[in-house]
Write a structure and sequence with these properties.
With about 400 residues, the chain is an alpha+beta fold. It folds into 3 domains: about 15-125, Orthogonal Bundle (Butyryl-Coa Dehydrogenase, subunit A, domain 1); about 130-235, Butyryl-CoA Dehydrogenase, subunit A, domain 2, CATH 2.40.110; about 240-390, Butyryl-CoA Dehydrogenase, subunit A, domain 3, CATH 1.20.140.10. About 50% of the residues lie in helices and about 15% in strands. The chain contains 11 helices and 10 strands. The strands form 2 sheets. Strands 1, 2, 3, 4, 5, 6, 7 and 8 form an 8-stranded mixed β-sheet that branches. The chain has a two-stranded antiparallel sheet with strand order 9-10. Helix 8 crosses helix 11. The structure holds flavin-adenine dinucleotide (FAD). Flavin-adenine dinucleotide binds near residues 137, 210, 365 and 375.
């Protein structure tokens, strides 16, 4: 694999501020007003995507040498938060570009990267990241999609499942198990074009939320890919997926924070207008406590997501476990906050015309994608136990306890 292409230095505070102001304008004038309509039909939200390309937001995922403007992750999470405040589908276009684009910039052979990445940065091409298959999601080591060596290339077989953007993607990063190679060295990542014979995209899978960001199964039946489409080396598929997933997990956290912030704003504004028992509902102490507690919790989640992004940018070796913490905390909180904010709108909250039922449906996916909450608890807990094995609290006398 090439070195991680992240360079965080080219961005001044003024440049970051200017970009965030552009994002806010885009959210207020285009993505926000369109969001309810986007949420009604699971077609890829092209208008939002083109607006993100036009404003140079998609390009921030990619290194400068391939035509991007590579933004540090600390800036990208702020972008994602602002967009998710109104529209999950549009926010997922920013995080999805990261997930399905950066591995190509980081690990494709130079000629391939030069041919494809600049076109991903402008939005002329779209890629999708195909890790999960019918047999395995959480348990990546259990992937059943295979890559069999065949002359100077590979034959791919398997069924990838829930692949975001598959209905519109031009090319797919397929993670597969190398046939005949045991253990961790078995995974490899290959770039497979949509028109490859043997690759077929299934119908759009009907789903609960993130409407406007469609997903589908991808069938691979003896799909032949030449060896120069291998990302990194054989056996590096797991490492490529890991770096990609760390960023994606922090991105899920940012989406959850942004959406929760949007839900809080909607609920608080509603509470200033709706009256019960002779006063505005926002004047009831019970409602104020709910809003106060949720606001404090969302701020805590925001801090955790942003500090995890900072860790990623400075290549802290513990970033992975902090990314798990950020995803777990922010996405579980996002589910609670969107549910409770909907509650504050009473019956109106349950109607499609008020956006909180959309926010609540969208919140669920952040607890599942890129590692479920249960998996992240396991990752964090395992880390805690490993660390504890080498530590001794000054007040704890283990020998005195007979241990
Ligand atoms: C809308 C959508 C879009 C997606 N987009 C993509 C995409 O673009 N690319 C891609 O590759 N994948 C994508 N995914 C797949 C997603 O990442 C997986 O669904 C997720 O990782 C969970 O895997 P699974 O569905 O196979 O669940 P499973 O792994 O089968 O887990 C089922 C349940 O068991 C629990 N569980 C499993 N193992 C343990 C354990 N050890 N301890 C405790 N509990 C456990 C899980 O937490 C979960 O509750 C998408 C999924 C959805 C729904």
């Amino acid at each position: 694999m090439k070195p991680n292409p992240t360079t965080t230095d080219g961005w001044t505070a003024d440049a970051e501020q200017a970009l965030l102001e552009r994002v806010e304008r885009l959210v207020d004038e285009e993505i926000g007003p369109r969001a309810n309509a986007v949420g009604r039909s699971d077609e890829f939200a092209w208008e939002s995507f083109r607006a993100l390309c036009r404003e140079g937001i998609i390009a921030t995922a990619f290194p400068v040498q391939y035509g991007g403007t590579e933004a540090p992750l600390r800036l990208r999470v702020r972008i994602v938060e602002r967009i998710a405040r109104v529209c999950s589908a549009a926010a997922s276009m920013v995080t999805g570009t990261d997930l399905a684009g950066r591995p190509i910039a980081a690990a494709a052979p130079e000629a391939l990267a030069r041919a494809i990445v600049p076109r991903l940065a402008t939005g002329e091409l779209q890629s999708a990241f195909a890790l999960t298959d019918r047999q395995a999601g959480s348990d990546v080591a259990g992937l059943a999609t295979t890559a069999r060596r065949d002359g100077d290339g590979y034959l791919l077989n398997g069924v990838k499942r829930y692949i975001t953007r598959a209905p519109v993607a031009d090319t797919f990063i397929v993670v597969a198990r190398l046939e005949g190679v045991p253990g961790a060295k078995a995974l490899c990542a290959l770039l497979v074009d949509r028109d490859t014979p043997g690759l077929e995209v299934g119908p759009t899978q009907a789903k609960m939320g993130f409407i406007g960001s469609p997903c589908a199964e991808v069938f691979l039946r003896d799909a032949r890919v030449s060896a120069d489409r291998l990302l990194g080396a054989e056996g590096e598929g797991f490492a490529i997926a890991q770096d990609t997933l760390i960023r994606a997990r922090i991105g899920h956290g940012a989406m959850a924070v942004g959406r929760a912030q949007g839900a809080l704003e909607i609920a608080a504004q509603y509470a200033t207008r709706r009256s019960t028992f002779g006063k505005r509902i926002g004047e009831h102490q019970g409602v104020q406590w709910m809003l106060g507690e949720m606001t404090a919790q969302v701020e805590a989640a925001r801090c955790l997501v942003r500090s995890s992004a900072d860790r990623y940018d400075r290549r802290d070796p513990e970033t992975a476990v902090y990314a798990s913490m950020a995803k777990l905390f922010a996405t579980d909180l996002g589910m609670r906050v969107t549910t409770d904010c909907l509650q504050l709108l009473g019956g109106n909250g349950y109607l499609k015309d008020a956006p909180l039922e959309r926010f609540m449906r969208d919140a669920k996916l952040n607890q599942i994608g890129e590692g479920t909450s249960e998996i992240h608890k396991t990752v964090i807990g395992r880390h805690v136990v490993r660390q504890a094995a080498g530590m001794r609290h000054p007040c704890l006398d283990l020998e005195g306890l007979g241990l």
